[in-house]
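Worked Example 4.2. Read the sequence first, then its structure tokens.
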Amino acid sequence: MDTVGGMIFEQGRKIQLFHTDATGRVTLASLCRFAQESAGGHAERLGVGMERLAGKNMAWVLREQAMHVTRYPGLGEVLRITTWPTRAERILCHRDYRILDESGQLVARGTSAWLGLDLATRRPCKAESFFHLPAEAMLAPVFERPLPELQAPLDGCPSDIRTVRASDMDALGHMNNLRYLDWIMDHLGLFGMKTPFGQVRIRHAREVRDGDKVEVRHGLTEDGEVLLQMRRLDGGREVCLARLGLRPSEQIAQQ
């Protein structure tokens, strides 16, 4: 559903078994998937969807996202996802969203930054070359204050090695951004951190492809937040940075 002159887009999603973890609760990656699917639906309505960009030999690629989760709903619950663009600058187009449950209570809120990738050069295009929504039509962002900065953990921190597999890949020939979240949860689970996280921020630095080997490593801040980095084994170039916290500004509702 479109509202406010088409600048806000809404859609519903029912939590299916494949959206949940071993506890029967929706996963963080699934919440991010719902947000991204709504973003794709809105982009189509605005005339800048994947098919339109494909005609220019371009594609949307996620650069950064952040999500604060208030509650992890369970199997069978129906969610309402609302999304809207907030601004475009240089190469990035910013988009925010809220996820509510059937009673209208907040489940999660988040922000994301996307770039238009030239598929021939694998380099980003200037936002103004394909994204033409007027600045005055953009709506306010969901977060009023700046998010905590991303930092790499110190050397010597706990780590493990992952290999990109065929099941990690998407149609753009690189590892899908949602798989990074799965990798993060797998990695932290190895070190006993299986508590649902209340907040996550992740920034992607470069692509990885089928067969690439990646070191996943993490450390803790004084406040108990997780600083996580993925970097390629061949050369140590950074793949992504993430920061995760057990609690956002709101307490996660009791399960």
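Now turn to a second chain, presented in exactly the same format:
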Amino acid sequence: MMKIEDVMNEEVILAEENEQVSHARNLMLKHGYSRILVVDQEGKPVGILTEKDLTRKMRSNGPKWKRRTIDKISIRRVMTPNLVTLTPFREVQEAVELMIKNDISSVPVVDGDEVVGIITKSDLMEFYRQKFTGKWKVSDLMTSEVITVNENHSIGHVIGIMEDQKIGKVIVVRDNEPVGIITSANISFANVEDPETGVSVEKIAFLRNIDGQEKRNVREVSMVTAGDLMTNHLIKIEQDEDAASAADIMAKKDVSGIPVVSDNELVGIITKTDIIRGIQ
């Protein structure tokens, strides 16, 4: 079996824990990365900061005037601490197990106290495509319990479902045929209150992809439906296809989940996590 050093990415973007969040955000934008490794003053890894952490923090509770922009606070207060790390000489399979067990999508690779790389679900998917083509069908690895909504469901309902189920994507169906997908990236949470507190704000900002153009929309929350928010150009995959094709599509289209159909009927969803489970 291959070792982690054969699969990991040696380019890691680092930021110091005392820097402001704005610094991390700029690094992400500049390098096009969705995660940054956080180190202390000695350069020892102490946490990781992802786009998801930033989105979550933007949705903090309380009245508007009490909310401060998170740009000014230190990275340490927003990052995910208690890093799980691996050494470069472990087997790739161990990275898969760690990610699945801890529900994370990247693991820093350290040799002693030195950061030497990072391994992500995307790296593992690439590895899967190289080594496991022809091994599993989509139906072998997919999750058949799919959380769905219909086009008329309110966006509050959709967000509630995502929070309850702790999922990042929901399939929109019409008569059991998938017609769209909503991911946390479709929704900009800047002006939505937490579903848990039940306090709702009147406006929500969301991105609509119209003819390949991203258009920013702001509407009354109570009026926005799943149909407004979903991405329409839906990529689907047949359950009998090779799972490596799903990995291929996810990499090319930069998506992390694809609805699985049989004769256009929704039968499951296949995600990056499902694919890396096939590495054995």
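Notes for the reader: The chain has a mean pLDDT of 84. The radius of gyration is 20 Å.
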